[in-house]
Each structure stands twice: as structure tokens, then as C-alpha cells.
Amino acid sequence: MQRTRLTDTLSIGPQIQPADVSTLKQAGFRAIVCNRPDGEGAGQPGQKDMAQAAQAAGLEFRYLPVTPGNVTSEIVAAFGKAIDELPGPVFAYCRSGARSSTLWSLAADRRP
Questions:
Q1: 3-61: per-residue pLDDT in tens?
Q2: CATH number of the domain bearing residue 68
Q3: Distance between CA atoms of 27 and 57, rounded to whole angstroms?
Q4: Distance (Å, rounded) from C-alpha 72 to C-alpha 28?
Q5: Where are the extended beta strands (E) located within the chain?
Q6: Other C-beta atoms within 10 Å of 39: how many?
Q7: Total structural domains in the chain?
Q8: What is the dihedral of CA 20, 69, 109, 11, to 10 degrees?
């Protein structure tokens, strides 16, 4: 499973599967943020399945879907708030990791 560490409290990556959640838990992650809308790609696990896998592993889960090319100020604010509120480290994912990285960058730019 590919992971890119952006900060001490946030890593991002491409789509994960429910079976990957235990690997994240073993790596020390305490929360997962899904930035990929349900039904975006064939074979993609839905956010409910991912939330159940996270809960079973004792991780928190947040669903903040972003449609490609439609990053709004509201979703940026919600992402920043999630990273602040969730126990870290947090793993955020989308199809490739690009949207999650963009959200982090935009949320960081808004901080005082």
C-alpha cells in the first residue's frame, strides 16, 4: 500500500481496500479520511464498507467526498477541521492521492 507522509500527523495515498485498514492500524494510524465519492470507479469499496473496516480496527473514519475538479472552500474547511479533530496520525485517500494532497495544501494555506 502506497503512503506519502505530508506531516507528522497526516499521510495520503491512493484508494485502499477494507483489508488494508489493519495495515494502517499496525503502522500507527488512528483515523482515516475518505475523499473519494462512492461509485467513482468500478470495484471501488464504498465508504460504508471502509467505515465498518475502520471501526472494526478501532480507527476513526470521516467521509469527505470531493468530485474531481470541484474543490470547494467548504470541503477545504471541513478537511482542515477533520485533521484538527481526528486523532493522529491520519491517513487520507482518494483515487490517486492527489485530491487529498490538494485539500491538505489548501487547508494549510488558510491557517493563521
A1: 999 999 999 999 999 999 999 999 999 999 999 999 999 889 999 999 999 999 999 99
A2: 3.90.190.10
A3: 12
A4: 30
A5: 4-5, 10-13, 31-34, 60-63, 90-93
A6: 9
A7: 1
A8: 10
